[in-house]
Amino acid sequence: MWIRENAEIDEWIEIQKRIVPEFVETLINRYKMLRLIQHHQPIGRRNLANALGMGERIVRREANILKKQGFIEIKAEGMNVTRFGYTSLEMLRSYIHRFKGLNSMEEEVAKKLNIHKVLIVPGSYDEDELVLREIGRVASVYLKSILKNDIVIGITGGQTMAMVAEEMSEDDLKHSNIAVIPARGGLGKNVEKQSNTIAAKIAKKLNASYNLLHMPDNISKELLKSLSEDPNIKEVVDYIQKIGILVFGIGRADKMSVRRGLSEEKINTLKQHGAVAEAFGYYFNKDGEIIQEVNTVGVSLDHYKGLQHIIGAAAGTEKAEAIIAISKLNENLTLVIDEGLAKKILI
């Protein structure tokens, strides 16, 4: 029954596309407008026009239509999404997903990468930075769907993971004894993107406990051994071995090598050997083969390969090679990416 109903919906969508082809562009443009208003409200017409790359007159016309239909309200300080608009946005996300044929694209990407599941967010991060928020939202929703009692969630740092924490809603979850911990040590000076900050934020929204790892990610093995004798640090390092769900961002080798402060000589060596991805203390080539190991604190490669529940998230076409490489490490991976990146992977 469910399969037949979905087939009928897809058939109806195809008929709509043929009878009213201009409907597709109008629907997507108004969806983008609603989404932008939601994230930047209250926002004026001029700022909205600049964000959308549209003329102010066109935006005024479209905004008046959305207001008339009850999706937004327009006040002196700017436009806001109404309660009806919020509800409609949730429905529109699902509809546009089917409208653009992303269900079948998800299956294609999963098959090509030979991984468990792929979730695709409409749009391209290369053209619309708000797509990253959608990736964060989708990843957080999926994470909640696989939660269970007595589970330890590991989360890495970075911009994408920070967005997962930002977009996660606070719900009254019916699970007990959930812990959230940083899956890697700290990297860089941006506190908001540190795994400690992200782990604490997610724990609060899940009403879970958390432990912090007060240790930089790239330290020498000698210093790591010394610091690991500290009871507080040892507790978190031991906790990392209990991670049952891992949520992580996927990094390009060239950018991560710079962030980790590698010398120019080492960076050039990585390039010469075809390194395209960095994860779990290793640099990998496009075939998922190890190019180089680095000193790191957190989830080990062996631990990652044995995990049953993994959520990887990435945005932007530049991440295609890195994703292809990481996907070869564990077929249990669930990947959350944008439409533009999915198309790049399928090329």
UniProtKB/TrEMBL annotation:
Domain CggR N-terminal DNA binding stretches: 29-95
Top-rank lineage group of the source organism: Bacteria
Presence of the UniProt keyword Cell membrane in the record: no
Domain annotation Sugar-binding: ranges: 98-346
UniProt-listed InterPro entries: CggR_N (IPR048715), SorC_transcr_regulators (IPR051054), Sugar-bd_dom_put (IPR007324)
Keyword terms of this UniProt record: DNA-binding, Transcription, Transcription regulation
Keyword DNA-binding: yes
Protein's name according to its UniProt entry: Sugar-binding transcriptional regulator
